[in-house]
């Protein structure tokens, strides 16, 4: 019987070692966004672990860390086990790294047992899933799946550095991005382990669940253009206050999502007042809108409705509005056959088989366009994520390791 508690203790100690590497010099919080010195230091650490495990390891053009366990079978396809090692700002330690380091543990176990697989196994630590630095997600997995559009190279970060420059500065190579994709005919499938980032498993006490669907997303940048003016002299009924317009839209958005429910969520998570001061009537406000639903029709209808509401608010208040779609991803259904195997692995490990819809985006989304893809969610503390309080119970990770190991063995048997 494999010693899952001991393996879990080792992988959690790796999580803490990686989690101590941060852009925040005090080390009090975890921030490792794409391409920064902290990101590179963290990736070096993980690369050392990949190499020590015996994986054939390389960095691709966009800085994904890729480890290969080759099959002896001629013409073998490739099964990808992956998650990401970049983080949001002021993050937890588990969103992304847990999936990579659980994958590493599973690969180490396969190597130690000298198991011959009928497929190549590629373990990937994606360099950018969160999209924090360049405001567009899945940069790493887009490269591996062949979905990377060269126009993305011109996107700029907050300091005006283009993605092309950032890639060069971090020692990557924008010229190889197309060749870094796994050709479609080579894919066998994709599997990602990830904390749930929501409270369902925490409440039910079930350690692990399969993912049935991943919500689609629309990300929009709105700019409200009012008239800056003196806070003490312009009468209230003669103002064109850009922030008041934005605030009305934020509350209308919340009310809209609350009314519609059924998986629709809408968030304004970033807001900037241009030339802000306490004695200036806000003249320009730029903010995000993040809209998600697992139902494509509902997502499209919500998008159209909220845009109309924003335009109506702008017209009534006499302010200008630009509405710019920044990113759109369609909802994804996880693969039925992989989920059948995963469900068997969960049941054989003695747990109830639950299927969850992911409201969070994952690298499984681009992967699903080229290969059968699925995910397993691991119970996390109170469902808290994108927050330093993110945490897991060791017993839940051990249970998920057992499930994932069974799943890989079932996959092996299915392709033998
Ligand atoms: C990634 O964490 C996302 O869903 O925004
Ligand atoms: Mn994640
Ligand atoms: Mn995240």
Fold and architecture overview:
It contains eleven helices and 16 strands. The protein is α+β, with helices and mostly antiparallel strands and 416 residues long. The chain folds into two domains: 4-215 and 331-414, Aminopeptidase (3-Layer(aba) Sandwich), CATH 3.40.630; 216-329, 2-Layer Sandwich (Alpha-Beta Plaits). Strands 1, 2, 3, 4, 5, 6, 14, 15 and 16 form a nine-stranded mixed sheet that branches. Strands 7, 9, 10, 12 and 13 form a five-stranded antiparallel sheet that branches. It has a two-stranded antiparallel ribbon with strand order 8-11. A hairpin with a 5-residue loop joins strand 1 and strand 2. The longest helix is centred in the last third of the chain and has 22 residues, at 296-317. It is globular. The protein starts with a helix and ends with a helix. 45% of the residues are buried. Bound molecules: glyoxylic acid (GLV) and manganese (II) ion (MN) (2 copies). The site of glyoxylic acid has 3 residues, from loops.
Describe the structure using short key phrases.
5-stranded antiparallel sheet; Aminopeptidase; binds glyoxylic acid; 11 helices; 2 domains; 9-stranded mixed sheet; 416 residues; binds manganese (II) ion; alpha+beta; Alpha-Beta Plaits
């Amino acid at each position: 019987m494999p010693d899952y508690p001991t393996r879990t203790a080792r992988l959690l100690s790796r999580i803490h070692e990686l989690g101590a590497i941060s852009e925040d010099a005090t080390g009090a919080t975890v921030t490792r966004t794409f391409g920064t010195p902290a990101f590179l230091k963290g990736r070096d650490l993980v690369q050392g672990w990949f190499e020590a495990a015996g994986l054939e390891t390389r960095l691709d053009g966009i800085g994904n860390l890729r480890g290969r366990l080759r099959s002896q079978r001629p013409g073998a396809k490739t099964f990808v086990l992956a998650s990401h090692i970049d983080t949001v700002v002021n993050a937890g330690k588990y969103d992304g790294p847990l999936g990579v380091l659980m994958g590493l543990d599973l690969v180490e176990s396969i190597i130690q047992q000298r198991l011959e697989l009928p497929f190549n196994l590629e373990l990937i630590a994606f360099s950018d899933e969160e999209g924090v630095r360049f405001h567009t997600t899945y940069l790493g997995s887009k490269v591996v799946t062949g979905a990377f559009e060269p126009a993305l190279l011109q996107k700029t970060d907050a300091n005006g550095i283009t993605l092309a420059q950032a890639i060069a500065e971090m020692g990557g190579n924008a010229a190889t991005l197309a060749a870094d994709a796994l050709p479609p005919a080579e894919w066998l499938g994709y599997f990602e382990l990830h904390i749930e980032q929501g409270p369902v498993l925490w409440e039910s006490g079930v350690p692990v669940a399969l993912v049935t669907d991943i919500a689609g997303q629309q990300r929009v940048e709105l700019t409200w253009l009012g008239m800056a003016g003196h806070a003490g002299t312009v009468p209230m009924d003669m103002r064109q206050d850009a922030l008041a317009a934005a605030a009305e839209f934020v509350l209308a958005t919340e009310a809209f999502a609350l009314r519609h429910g059924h998986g629709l969520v809408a968030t304004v998570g970033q807001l900037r007042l241009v030339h802000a001061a306490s004695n200036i009537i806000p003249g320009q406000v730029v903010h995000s809108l993040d809209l998600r639903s697992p139902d494509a029709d509902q997502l499209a209808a919500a998008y159209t409705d909220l845009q109309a509401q924003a335009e109506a608010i702008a017209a009534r208040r006499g302010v200008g509005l630009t509405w710019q779609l920044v990113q759109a991803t369609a909802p994804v259904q996880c693969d039925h056959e992989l989920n059948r195997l995963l469900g068997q692995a969960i049941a054989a490990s003695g747990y109830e088989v639950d299927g969850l819809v992911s409201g969070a985006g994952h690298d499984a989304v681009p992967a699903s366009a080229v290969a059968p893809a699925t995910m397993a969610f691991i119970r996390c503390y109170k469902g808290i994520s994108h927050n330093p309080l993110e945490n897991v119970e060791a017993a839940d990770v051990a249970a998920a390791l057992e499930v994932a190991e069974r799943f890989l063995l079932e996959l092996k048997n299915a392709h033998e």
